[in-house]
Amino acid sequence: MMSPNFVMRWAFAGCMLWATSPVQAGADVMRVFERLAAPDMVWEPIEQSTLAGQPVYWRMFSVTGPLMEVAARLSQFSSVFQRALVLRHKVVLSGVAGRKHWVADLTTTPDGIKGVLSMMLLSGKPSVGQRAAVLPWLSQWAQSRYSQTTHSAMATTTHEVYSASMPPATLRRLMRESLQKEGWTALSAASAGSLERWRKQSVKLLFSTYEAGAGTTIFLHAAEPVRVGGG
What we know:
- 23% of the residues lie in helices and 44% in strands.
- It is α+β, with helices and mostly antiparallel strands and 231 residues long.
- It has one domain (4-225).
- Strands 1, 2, 3, 4, 5, 6 and 7 form a seven-stranded antiparallel beta sheet that branches.
């Protein structure tokens, strides 16, 4: 249970963040988690990109302790995480706070808990309906764990999380080959880090793969601009 002083510190930090610019607030919120949510977590540097003009952030972390205990500590921030998907050796937390969409993916490994925290600024409202997977063929190698679609006046944006039983390098190679066969163009070098950028006509795609135990977690964002007018 969080102490009253802890809650007050988090609330104060949140108020300060909403007062800053959206882009600056995104990076600052990531750092607030580092300082307040779980001090014993080991955090990797923040990765940032943009999709349909909206900032997207990823951040890996690791922590020791039981999976459900770590998930419970994060889920106490109900203003950020309102949903939880509990699987064997994995928990996916998600939610919308203000204009920010959050996903935390936690996986049990022999070395402790490995996780990825993702945040995307929203310009529209989440969809309550089902939407086809961005990359339908990805299901032959990976299992869908989470999918959220947001519609705005500018674009339709989809955020998906998958898990696979193969190493990240193998999965990335298979994904690149399939994307190229479908006519996607790589916008980033294969060696440019964990985040890859692709484009097919007007659709933009970002994906990142992270080692999770003996397998891989995939975070995927896609954005398709809304067509204005006829033809």
